[in-house]
Design brief:
The complex is a heterodimer of chains A (118) and B (111). Chain A has 118 residues and is mostly beta strands. Chain A is 0% helix and 54% strand. By secondary structure, chain B is an all-beta fold. Chain B is built from no helices and 9 strands. Classes of the chains: A mainly beta (118), B mainly beta (111). Chain A binds chain B through residues 1, 4, 6, 31-32, 34, 36, 43-46, 49, 51, 91, 93-95, 97, 103-112, 114, and chain B through 32, 34, 36, 41-46, 49, 87, 93-104.
């Protein structure tokens, strides 16, 4: 299947700092990428949909000024957590859609980024 | 997107076949059924996808009855490494549709 990478795999930062997480599609072009957040023992929660060359679409309750998303190319989307606080500590996962044969499209997920804000 | 319901948890012994059923009563005509596997601290991994009847790949089988209101993921001869959370998702595949994850099924394989 298609490969999606994330960098870094984990990050520890001080409260008030900003953290950038990269999501790359390694062997395909992704016009749309998604960003999810997952807290311990919980399911994935969609944060936003990232479209190449346009503004991201955020889910209800997700602050767009706090979670900045940039989809600069067909293989790269970035999520910046601005002024991070301890409650932002979570597991952040991105995904990208690959068009399969026929009408099917499948989402492939990155390995995730563990963020710990002290 | 159609809502899905699946058991919160399941236990099984090594070597057995495991069947995880997912209910999706409100599935739409153009919806596909997709199953993902997630290990702790990893992103979900695509397992299998289907529209109707039966789909099989090297990892699992997916059984979908004619009314498509449920589906069953079948894992043959499970091993300890199959311990994970399994998510059933339903949605259209004609565009870049966002996925809504339910609670998933936490499968524990017992030695």
């Amino acid at each position: 299947g298609a490969v999606v990478s994330q960098h870094p795999s984990w990050v520890i930062c001080k409260s008030g700092t900003s953290v950038k997480i990269e999501c790359r599609s390694l062997d395909f072009q992704a016009t749309t990428m998604f960003w999810y957040r997952q807290f311990p023992k919980q399911s994935l929660m969609l944060m936003a949909t990232s479209n190449e060359g346009s503004k991201a679409t955020y889910e209800q309750g997700v602050e767009k000024d706090k979670f900045l998303i940039n989809h600069a190319s067909l293989t790269l989307s970035t999520l910046t957590v601005t002024s991070a606080h301890p409650e932002d500590s979570s597991f952040y996962i991105c995904s990208a859609t690959v068009k399969e044969a026929g009408p099917k499209k499948t989402q492939y997920f990155g390995p995730g980024t563990r963020l710990l804000v002290l | 997107l159609a809502k899905t319901t699946q058991p919160i948890s399941m236990d099984s012994y090594e070597g057995q076949e495991v069947n995880i059923t997912c209910s999706h009563n409100n599935i739409a005509t153009n919806d596909y059924i997709t199953w993902y596997q997630q290990f702790p601290s990893q992103g979900p991994r695509f397992i299998i996808q289907g529209y109707k009847t039966k789909v099989t790949n090297e990892v699992a089988s997916l059984f979908i009855p004619a009314d498509r209101k449920s589906s069953t993921l079948s894992l043959p001869r499970v091993s300890l490494s199959d311990t994970a959370v399994y998510y059933c998702l339903v949605g259209p595949n004609f565009g870049n549709e966002k996925l809504t994850f339910g609670t998933g099924t936490r499968l524990t394989i017992i030695p």
